[in-house]
Specification:
Blueprint: H1 3-30, E1 63-64, E2 69-72, E3 75-79, E4 83-84, E5 94-96, H2 107-141, H3 144-168, H4 176-198, H5 209-242, H6 249-252, H7 255-278, H8 285-306, H9 313-337
Antiparallel strand pairs: 1-4, 2-3, 3-5
The chain binds protoporphyrin IX containing FE.
The site of protoporphyrin IX containing FE (HEM) has 24 residues, from helix 5, helix 7, helix 8 and helix 9.
């Protein structure tokens, strides 16, 4: 078994799954399913969550495992121990779920959140294996770089999971969405560097330094734009709580929306300059793709901003934003280190 090949494959799979997890998280938000599972890591105390509210309705003769929940009088009750339902609800055998008072069952919300959690667990597998195999690479070839990057990736995934759990537990940390987004972009960057280091492709010639620096500048600009977009989104979340009519949302947004929108012009100007310049530079495949993704991203942004914020455009906008960052960052790595 060639360890380099395994590390390369694991890094690619992990990077691809990072985008899947970003999309899954965004679908949770688009459908408002964040509280679909009140507890963590189980869901209403079950490994596989209920598909019908009857499972969460207290009934005589039914068995409940310790930790399983029932919905009663708008309250979530958790079984203290394994019990069988009697004709009267014995409050001594149950306690009120202490972490928050959100007590509703909506099968769509529960399953969207559950699938999101499954995606995260599946994501954890190649990331963990990547760290393990990078340790072997360190032992065999003394490759500290990949090992440290893979370790940082595991730590970052742990941080993201911890942040997600805090939000589910009802700890509303200010700007938690921004931190979460920051973590996702950091994961894209870390895994891109590993994929790059393990890659065997080489550019024919070294791109000019002005082109290389401009690629880095564009990656930084996209990162800033993503953080601005996340601020817009935090406001959208607040507005969505009291106004269900999507066509009114954009007009209610504060100045940050206009800043985010106008900042796209700066991005586009740099991207167009780079595109024109790229004809005199060695061909970088990821850069061409990034240009298409960036155009698509701005178009989806326009759809959000001028066509009443269609729900499907929300995860797409987030996904294309993260993807354009990843592709430009990777193009910069190739240009800078001639990979
Ligand atoms: C390259 C350009 C752009 C990038 C990288 C970008 C990125 C982002 C990101 C990452 C978010 C947060 C999404 C989320 O957390 O779910 C966001 C939100 C948003 N962006 Fe952009 N954006 C760009 C251009 C635009 C343009 C041109 C417009 C409008 C004309 C726009 C309108 C919006 C709106 C309305 C939101 C809030 C969407 C929501 O709440 O789901 N964006 N943007």
């Amino acid at each position: 078994m060639n360890i380099s090949n395994v590390v390369r494959a694991l890094a690619r799979v992990s990077l691809a799954l990072t985008f899947v997890v970003i999309i899954a998280g965004s679908v949770v938000r688009m459908t408002g399913s964040g509280m679909g599972c009140p507890d963590w890591p189980k869901c209403f105390g079950y490994l596989i969550p209920p598909t019908d509210v009857s499972t969460l309705t207290y009934a005589e003769g039914r068995s409940y495992g310790a930790g399983q929940m029932v919905l009663r009088n708008d309250t979530l009750w958790v079984a203290n121990e394994a019990i069988t339902g009697t004709s009267l609800f014995n409050r001594e055998k149950w306690y009120k779920y202490p972490k928050h008072d959100y007590a509703t069952f909506n099968v769509l919300h529960t399953w969207v959140e559950y699938v999101n959690r499954l995606a995260t667990v599946v994501y954890g597998i190649p990331v963990f294996l990547l760290a393990l195999f990078s340790l072997l690479l360190l032992i065999k070839r003394g490759d500290w770089g990949v090992f440290l990057l893979a370790t940082a990736t595991v730590v970052m995934v742990g941080f993201e999971a911890w942040l997600g759990k805090l939000v589910v537990d009802g700890n509303l940390i200010e700007h938690s969405i921004t931190y979460h987004m920051f973590g996702s972009i950091a994961l894209v960057a870390l895994l891109s560097v590993i994929v790059f280091r393990m890659s065997v492709a080489k550019l024919d010639a070294r791109p000019s330094s002005v082109f290389t620096h401009s690629l880095l500048a564009l990656a930084v600009l996209i990162f800033v734009q993503i953080l601005l977009g996340t601020q817009v989104r935090e406001h959208v979340d607040v507005i969505a709580k009291f106004e269900s009519n999507r066509s009114l949302w954009v007009d209610m947004l504060p100045l940050i929306f206009k800043i985010h929108r106008s900042f796209s012009l700066v991005l586009l100007a740099v991207a167009i300059w780079l595109y024109r310049r790229s004809h005199q530079e060695p061909m970088i495949g990821q850069f061409r793709l990034a240009m298409l993704v960036l155009i698509a991203e701005v178009l989806v942004g326009i759809v959000l901003g001028y066509f009443h914020m269609p729900a499907l455009a929300q995860p797409l906008h987030l996904f294309l934003g993260a993807l354009s960052f990843g592709l430009i960052f990777y193009s910069w790595l190739r240009a800078r280190f001639r990979g």
